[in-house]
Amino acid sequence: xxxxxxxxxxxxxxxxxxxxxxxxxxxxxxxxxxxxxxxxxxxxxxxxxxxxxxxxxxxxxxxxxxxxxxxxxxxxxxxxxxxxxxxxxxxxxxxxxxxxxxxxxxxxxxxxxxxxxxxxxxxxxxxxxxxxxxxxxxxxxxxxxxxxxxxxxxxxxxxxxxxxxxxxxxxxxxxxxxxxxxxxxxxxxxxxxxxxxxxxxxxxxxxxxxxxxxxxxxxxxxxxxxxxxxxxxxxxxxxxxxxxxxxx
Length: 248
Ligand code: HPA
Fold this sequence. Notes:
Bound molecules: hypoxanthine
Strand content: 15-25%
Structural class: alpha/beta
């Protein structure tokens, strides 16, 4: 079964026919909110709002371990995360949708593994390809079928937040090879891998990164929210096709 973790601007899926909601508990505490069980184009999906339905949980306080653990417990084997990002690379301008293929972790102090005791056997997650190549392909094929342009690949810089970046930090991330910047990619991506979930991200560029384009004096969050809102329909049409045009 597929789960969708929605970020800013995608706290609900209007075309999701909800069958029931369920509050989950895990050994790691409670997920960000009740899981919405439903159907999207007659295919079963679970939807979770990463920041809570009232958008009250900041990126560094999201219980990533509980979110993914509870999805795994429900029999989920594929997770598509939807996230907003700031664009660093010149072609990643506001409104562009991108499916990243690499990630760099700049977060700190987050619970980033399930192997945090000394008495269970652990694995070293093989993070060479952080996102599921098969699920990425499926998203890209679906986007192309519904004629939604989507950039194939890019490096996601995961920052701690909740503050935005300084212009010098963005320059540093660019020197490191990053193409976009967001606050929720880690540890979500690696926790999904520890649970052997197929995981990929649809990133929506909602602003030029700090110091770039029209963000030279700062990022206009109202514009960013409006850009996220305008992109939601396009993301939804891609997701609908992922579950129904291209099932398997
Ligand atoms: N920086 C960090 N996270 C973000 C940004 C940004 O510019 N835009 C959306 N999420």
